[in-house]
Structure formats: structure tokens, C-alpha cells
């Protein structure tokens, strides 16, 4: 029996999201059926709903910060049982045989991961549809290998955004070996940025936040940041020159990065996380003069995502969230576009209209 699902979908780039119904597949032998309780609202959802990156196929149900409870499992499922608290992030499958997949870095799968929404779905996604549909919905069916366990100590609502914002910031912090003594700057205090601050602080780093105004200064300090800079303050930016080992850049729009590069110490790296499609003005001189790098990073693998969830449980870390009803999603997008986010909107599926 297909699983009747209530959702919110984008139907065109210039139209508000609207209620949408479809059927999820009944769990196959390796599948876990999940009742979604909460779904975080990532800026990537907005980029896709508004076709900022091109190629969006409508109608599209965004959402890849999913937290819920298992309602049924297939015959081969050993890792989960009915009633377990689980999460689903940005991917629901990958080829499993390429080098990145075998290394547990499925996000870099060579033929391409199957994203939670908007991907062609070779293994059968929603009934009668050819692309995956995401978490702004009350049900989802996912292969057990792409389902995460949410530790008991983490509330489901504040854990949901860890499935993207958490892992996307945890992975580069680990890759660039942040630890005690590291000096880390976080550019942009939104959903990703606030998790970067909390995680880097928990890893022992001295953290500085760079923001467009001083509106979020007190919050940054509460999250553990030691310093706060406004990135249009040329004097403060100059004074902070040659300081940071790692800059986590979470800005969601094309912006001037040359001024940020001189903040890096020798051998420092700026990691770009924002999904911007325009070119970045990167000049050779500030790079070569201090052997600096500009890099990118994409979410994280399944194994590392579980490690991140367990790390958050061990350190008592979760997201700062503002709960909304599903029909408030358009208002949330408008606020996100004004950077008025503190620090993640999370949809409460219990408030979905019947
Ligand atoms: P968000 O919550 O909207 O936060 C973005 C922050 O960037 C804002 O709060 C603001 O910070 C700053 N900002 C926005 N526009 C700016 C501008 N024109 N100039 C300077 N700063 C600006 O977004 P998010 O969910 O954290 O996502 C951030 C970006 O990462 C998005 O592009 C998203 O698609 C992308 N993303 C990438 C991955 C990945 O795997 N690489 C994963 C998830 C998301 P202040 O208020 O502090 O100035
Ligand atoms: Zn995301
Ligand atoms: Zn692969």
C-alpha cells in the first residue's frame, strides 16, 4: 500500500510554496519508513525552490534536515526498528562502489549521489514520480544505509538541522584538523554559521564571527565566539589580518572575498560553503604570499554524519531553532532572504493541515 503523504511544494520559481499530496513507496526489503516530525529549512532549499542554481524540476518538495520516527522496516533491515528516532540528510542513495562511496564519502560519489530532493531516482522514490521529493512532508521511505540514528539526549526538533547545517560545518572542521589552539573564523551567522561556531568551540578552537552588522553579536558570544567583526569595517578587518588557520565561509550570496583572504595566517584555508554560481574574484598575490588556499566542501558522508550526531550528543550541542507551521514556509523564506534567521527555521509537521 503506497503511503499517503502531505507536503509543501514549490510549483514555480516565482510562486509561493503550496500544499501538495503524493504517495511514498511502501518499504522494500532494505527500506525504512519514517514519520517525519520535524524538518529544518536550509538556504539550499530556497535556492532550489527559486531556481537560483538552474535546473529545478517542479513541483519540488524541498527539505533535507529530516528528523522523525520509524514506522515500518523491510525484511532485510537490521539497523533500525519501529519506534527508533532517526534522521535523513541531503542524500538517500549513491552508487556504493566508486572510490568515494567505498571511503564513506558518498557525497562525492563519482556518478553522483541521489539527493533527498530533486534527483533522478533509479531505485524508486515517490510512487509514479521520477525525481526524489524531500522533507517538507510528513512521511518518507529511505534505504537503511542512508538513515542516521538520533541520540536520545538530542531533542528531535533541535537535532533536525544537524542533518545538513551540522554535518556541512563539522566535515571541514575535521578535514582541516581544527582542535585546541586553532584560530577559526566563521563568515555569516545563519544556519550553517551558528553550527560552525558551536562545533569549532567544542573542538577547542578560538572562534571569531564575521557578520554584516552587530545585530547578532550577543548571540555569537553566547555560542562561544571570543571575537566578533563586522566585515564592512575596513579598520577592524585590517587589524585582524594574518590571524586565522581556517575560515568557514557560509555566506549564501556572491560577495567580496579578497578582503577576507588577508585574514588568513600562513598556510591558512578559506572553505567556501555557500552555493553561489557566479565567479569569485580570487587574486594570486594574497594566496602565494602566505601559501594560502581557497577550498570548498560539500556536506559529509553517512559515517561522518553519525559521528557528528554523536559528537553533538556528547557535547550537549544542538541548533538554535524557531519552530514554524508548514504554511509559514513562505514567510520563513522571506525572512531568510533578509538574513533574519535565529538560527534555523524548523517545520513542525504536527501542524500540517489535515
Ligand atoms: P542562512 O541561514 O540564510 O545564512 C546565511 C548567512 O550569510 C546570513 O545569515 C548572513 O549572515 C550571511 N549573508 C547573507 N547574504 C549576504 C551577503 N549578500 N553578504 C554577506 N553576508 C551575507 O543560510 P545557510 O542555510 O546557513 O546556508 C548558507 C549557504 O550555504 C547557502 O548558500 C546554502 O545553499 C549553502 N549550503 C551549502 C552546503 C554545502 O554542502 N556546501 C550545505 C548546506 C548549505 P549575517 O547575518 O551574519 O551577516
Ligand atoms: Zn542544506
Ligand atoms: Zn559512488
From TrEMBL:
Name the record gives this protein: NAD(P)-dependent alcohol dehydrogenase
Entry keyword set: Metal-binding, Oxidoreductase, Zinc
Cofactor(s) needed by this chain: Zn(2+)
EC number annotated for this UniProt entry: 1.1.-.-
Class of this enzyme: oxidoreductase
Residue stretches spanning the membrane: none
Family: Belongs to the zinc-containing alcohol dehydrogenase family.
Pfam families per the UniProt record, alphabetical: ADH_N, ADH_zinc_N
PROSITE patterns in the record: ADH_ZINC
Domain Enoyl reductase (ER): 6-347
Gene3D superfamilies according to UniProt: Medium-chain alcohol dehydrogenases, catalytic domain, NAD(P)-binding Rossmann-like Domain
Keyword Iron-sulfur: no
GO MF: oxidoreductase activity
Source superkingdom: Bacteria
Amino acid at each position: 500500500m503506497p503511503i499517503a503523504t502531505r507536503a509543501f511544494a514549490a510549483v514555480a520559481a516565482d510562486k509561493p510554496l503550496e500544499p501538495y499530496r503524493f504517495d511514498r513507496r511502501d518499504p522494500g526489503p532494505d527500506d525504512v519508513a519514517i514519520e517525519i516530525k520535524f524538518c529544518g529549512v536550509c538556504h539550499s532549499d530556497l535556492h532550489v525552490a527559486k531556481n537560483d542554481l538552474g535546473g529545478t524540476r517542479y513541483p519540488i518538495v524541498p527539505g533535507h534536515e529530516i528528523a522523525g520516527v520509524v514506522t515500518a522496516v523491510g525484511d532485510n533491515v537490521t539497523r533500525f526498528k519501529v519506534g527508533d528516532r532517526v534522521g535523513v540528510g541531503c542524500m538517500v542513495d549513491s552508487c556504493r562502489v566508486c572510490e568515494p562511496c567505498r571511503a564513506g564519502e558518498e557525497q562525492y560519489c563519482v556518478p553522483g549521489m541521489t539527493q533527498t530532493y530533486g534527483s533522478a531516482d533509479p531505485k524508486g522514490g515517490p510512487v509514479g514520480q521520477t525525481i526524489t521529493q524531500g522533507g517538507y512532508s510528513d512521511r518518507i521511505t529511505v534505504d537503511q544505509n542512508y538513515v542516521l540514528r538520533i541520540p536520545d539526549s538530542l531533542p528531535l526538533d533541535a537535532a533536525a538541522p544537524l542533518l545538513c547545517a551540522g554535518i556541512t560545518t563539522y566535515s571541514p572542521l575535521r578535514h582541516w584538523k581544527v582542535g585546541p589552539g586553532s584560530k577559526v573564523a566563521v563568515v555569516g551567522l545563519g544556519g550553517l554559521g551558528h553550527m560552525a561556531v558551536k562545533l569549532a568551540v567544542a573542538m577547542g578552537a578560538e572562534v571569531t564571527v564575521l557578520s554584516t552588522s552587530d545585530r547578532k553579536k550577543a548571540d555569537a558570544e553566547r555560542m562561544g565566539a571570543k571575537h566578533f567583526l563586522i566585515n564592512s569595517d575596513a579598520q577592524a578587518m585590517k587589524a585582524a589580518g594574518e590571524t586565522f588557520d581556517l575560515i568557514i565561509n557560509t555566506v549564501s550570496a556572491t560577495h567580496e572575498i579578497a578582503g577576507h583572504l588577508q585574514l588568513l595566517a600562513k598556510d591558512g584555508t578559506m572553505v567556501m560553503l555557500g552555493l553561489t554560481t557566479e565567479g569569485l574574484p580570487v587574486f594570486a598575490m594574497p594566496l602565494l604570499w602566505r601559501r594560502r588556499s581557497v577550498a570548498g566542501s560539500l556536506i559529509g558522508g553517512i559515517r561522518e554524519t553519525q559521528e557528528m550526531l554523536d559528537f553533538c550528543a556528547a557535547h550537549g550541542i544542538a541548533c538554535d531553532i524557531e519552530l514554524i507551521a508548514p504554511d509559514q514556509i513562505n514567510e520563513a523564506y522571506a525572512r531568510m532572504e533578509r538574513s533574519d534567521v535565529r538560527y534555523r527555521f524548523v517545520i513542525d509537521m504536527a501542524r500540517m493541515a489535515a
